[in-house]
Design brief:
Elements lengths: L1 H25 L5 H32 L11 H11 L5 H46 L1 E3 L4 E4 L6 E4 L5 E5 H6 L2 H16 L2 H14 L4 H26 L1 H12 L6 H4 L2 H9 L7 H33 L1
Parallel strand pairs: 2-4
Antiparallel strand pairs: 1-2, 3-4
Helix pairs in contact: 1-2, 1-8, 1-12, 2-4, 2-8, 2-12, 4-7, 6-8, 6-9, 7-8, 8-9, 9-11
């Protein structure tokens, strides 16, 4: 039971504190890869902590047993809670606690079902979008992309079978050849890095848990950081100046593509600045945040398992 309390408090602490802390690392994209890892670790371990907390509580109520590895100063409170749950303090209180646990279980199941439906719906939409884009456009073998014969500027990638990069005639007209190559490299970096999977998952969590900043802010921050990662991949091939000029050209169009508008100012600042590696303290701090976010709940779960094994022996 003590492990459950610790995990529950950990989950709430991360949900409240992580958005402000992690935005310091990701606001200018100094270490985008580590920042993405830290955001994903915080979101994943928070969900893990709450899930394991609920599982421990249900198991404890079902077996009338308190898990080992106690936190001494909380033992009295936990023992009273356990006694109430198993009926030592009367039927009404036991019924109330069991009802509360049941409602929490139902709520968790509904969130999981809604998340699953959201992810499946997003996948179907993406596959259908890719299919329609291939039908509406023409494949350009030299670009290895589907070209839409419309003047509205568009440049994006769609995951599908196969993956598809889509550009419009408006983009082909606006960009010079080397700028267009940089844009295509940017989109290929998204597909090669499987960024669509991360975006689908983070946006799904933000959809089903819209009141928790860790997931809503995290989804937008991860999306912005992934754009920076794709910029870096394109810059390694074509140079930062070429990627920057392509981005500025697209953003200056009367109706710029959505990908060019996404977090434009931080991306322009990064590409305009010298390509210096991030300072070692910054990298260490970001890495420590990601490692800590993973280590704490995993250690708590391992402690619970060890406690149960010791009890069994």
């Amino acid at each position: 039971m003590s492990v459950a309390v610790c995990l529950m408090l950990y989950g709430f602490a991360v949900a409240v504190l992580a958005p402000r802390l992690l935005r310091r690392f990701s606001i200018e994209g100094i270490t985008p890869r580590l920042a993405v890892a830290a955001w994903l670790a915080a979101m994943a371990t928070t969900v893990l902590a709450w899930t394991v907390t609920l599982a421990i509580l249900i198991i404890d109520l079902a077996t009338h047993r308190i898990s080992l590895f106690p936190v001494r100063f909380m033992d009295g409170c936990l023992l009273h809670l356990h006694d109430a749950a198993v009926g030592d303090y009367g039927g009404p209180l036991q019924t109330g606690l069991l009802a509360l646990s049941g409602l929490a279980s139902v709520a968790a199941a509904l969130v999981a079902i809604r998340l699953g439906r959201t992810l499946l719906r997003a996948r179907r939409h993406t596959l259908e979008h890719a299919r329609l884009a291939r039908m509406a456009g023409r494949h350009h073998p030299e670009l290895d992309a589907v070209v839409l014969d419309v003047d509205h500027p568009a440049a994006y990638c769609v995951a599908g079978k196969p993956h598809t990069i889509v550009v419009s005639r408006g983009v082909l007209t606006a960009l010079e050849d080397h700028h267009l190559d940089a844009v295509l490299s940017h989109e290929r970096a998204h597909l090669d890095g499987r960024h669509h999977l991360l975006l689908t998952l983070t946006r799904g969590l933000a959809t089903v848990l819209p009141r928790i900043d860790l997931f809503t802010v995290g989804a937008s921050e991860v999306a912005r950081l992934l754009e920076m990662l794709a910029d870096d991949a394109a810059a390694r091939i074509h140079g930062r100046a070429t990627v920057l000029q392509a981005l500025l050209t697209l953003s200056a169009l009367p109706t710029p593509p959505a990908t060019a508008e996404a977090a434009l100012l931080p991306r322009v600042r990064r590409l305009s600045a010298p390509a210096d590696p991030p300072r070692l303290p910054t990298r260490i701090a970001a890495g420590a945040v990601a490692l800590t976010a993973v280590a704490i709940p995993v250690a708590a779960v391992i402690a619970a398992v060890i406690g149960i094994e010791v009890c069994a022996t």
